[in-house]
Amino acid sequence: MTSFAQVFRPELANAEDMTQFHSDEYIEFLRMITPDNQHEHMRQLKRFNVAEDCPVFDGLFNFTQIYTGGSIGGAVRLNHKLADTVINWAGGLHHAKKAEASGFCYVNDIVLAILELLKVHSRVLYIDIDIHHGDGVEEAFYTTDRVMTASFHKFGEYFPGTGHLQDVGQHQGKYYSVNVPLKDGIDDETYDHLFKPIMEKIMEVFAPDAIVFQSGADSLSGDRLGCFNLSIRGHAECLKYMSTFNVPLLVLGGGGYTIRNVARCWTYETGCLLGRELEDVLPANDYSEYFGPTNTLHITPSNMENQNTREYIDGIRNRILENLSKLPARPGAPFYQVPPDLVSAQTQDMNIEPDLSEGEDRGGIYLDYGKNEDDFRVTKNVSEPVGTNPQGKEDAEKDMNENKEKSQELPDKDDI
Ligand SMILES: [Zn+2]
Q: Please, what is the angle between helix 259-273 and helix 232-243, to 10°?
């Protein structure tokens, strides 16, 4: 597939990049903690929740640098219109908080990538189809109307415990947080019945000019920690649907605990984004062991009970659509001065490595289209990523004059 996409090795994110969201103390701690010295820092380990699900391991900080660099670097490419879709399957660590690790997430690459996108985009939509609530991202943007978060997740006696239907955001951000709480066993048809109408409405009322999509694979049938019953096609349908809006798209990974199915899911979804329907029989390759024991791409959902009744699903769908209809049409988002890029300021000089088989330590795979637009559905309208909302652009210009002081402060970690 690499012949249809461009593959880049992103710059590593550094501590300064990370403190655009995280606290200085927390990042300094991640930088210095090692398995050998951790016994000397028991108080901080507890304070920053680096324990149990979030253990210290050799190379921890470097790990965060790699996946975070992929996401921020991807946002930089979208900002510069060097790509219309970017994938970083290593990213999507949605639970990390400003000064706290959570659920094997240490640095929140998603929040950092969204902050980067906000430098040149008026409104960013964040979508999360991981089975767990996207709590870290929601919390970061809970009071702003420039980022809408939409999380579809298992709710009720399940980690991390947040994401109630009635959690809709606060202050300026009221109704800009969308939570879709689901029960065990949701299947493709039921998921589709919720996802598309909600997203259609969000695209209409919020009209984002960039989308970040967390494609956690633990919502698949048969996940070791999950309890949903989605097929890979059902999971991918969400991503395919969002790609039809022709808005710049950053696609990230996330959870997934039946590893062979994570590999299947993200392989299939990479094909979808390239406009390629992959055959069900996987060709032998260097990574076949990750897909074993069978060599077929798709999985069969189980016969588990779907506890999400039609009444339940219709109820939450109607409630969410009602909330969304209360939003003002396309909030203006003024720009005063575009801040410089974070990581990968020299993005354009990045290494192009078309041969994946020789590479190691991939922090991110960037798909960049444009060699032959007609070949790829996702390349449509690349030259006008904000063209979907000309009125919003005008609003932004109008508000720019009225709100110069405010806009000078954006984005600022203290404001989110
Ligand atoms: Zn998860």
A: 30
